Amino acid sequence: MQTVTTIEALRQAVDELRAPHGGTAAATLALVPTMGALHEGHLTLVREAAKRADHVAVSIFVNPRQFGPNEDLDAYPRQLAQDAAQLEAQGVALLWAPGVAAMYPAGYATNVSVAGVSAGLCGADRPGHFDGVATVVLKLFNQVRPDLALFGEKDWQQLAVIRRMARDLDLMQPHVDAILGVPIVREADGLAMSSRNAYLSPADRAAAATLPLAMREAVARIADGQDATSTLAALEDALLGAGFASVDYAELRDADTLAPLDADNRNARLFVAARIGGTRLIDTMAIG
Ligand code: PAF
Question: What is the pTM of this model?
């Protein structure tokens, strides 16, 4: 695996990887964008990428533009050597690990803002977050020019923002249909894997398992035709009763448009963000 930290070295490495071996067709390249602190969820993305392309590139960049002023940018776990070893073991060809100055050189002034799907849910609780995500992901796409890119479905709204951006800006590489969502990978007790789970104390980690449990119960009730408003209120009560400090949102939305729903529409998803011990956890599940 080659690790590169400058745009020039990245371009050269990508050109070398794409050079046709034997035949005339250029080799295909899949990108898995990450912020590092890799867990099984990320490694699943890498394995899915490897099934679909000749080579896999992974980016690790803790993107300051997607963190709010009072968020965990400084605390966010950084473990590049450990991450690199895991990626090497998965057969990843290229690790793109730029520093902040390589990604946002002095004088950097451009922002990508995707209206509509960025509003509400995490967009409401984290103003500017999705601008930061869209900006860095567009830069990563332009830097690596992958044939396809893979993202975890835990960040469902993020995926919707990226796909909207790809459509709106006529992205060719990766084309919108080549931006793939991969199902959430969960711990044995159902908690969705996240780099932020590492912040949880043992007691909070145990209580955090209530999130997927209560969500599954709510999903079953809504799919069964029970009233969504009272079901979501009961879900919030269950989380607060289990030790969550607050619930940022517990909402039913259309999976594609993210439009709010007050009942199952056969394409509904449940979205929850809740805070425990200072850590904000998110999760999403399809209804039915
Ligand atoms: O999901 C993430 O890890 C980040 O939001 C991403 C897509 C790598 C952009 O920084």
Answer: 0.97
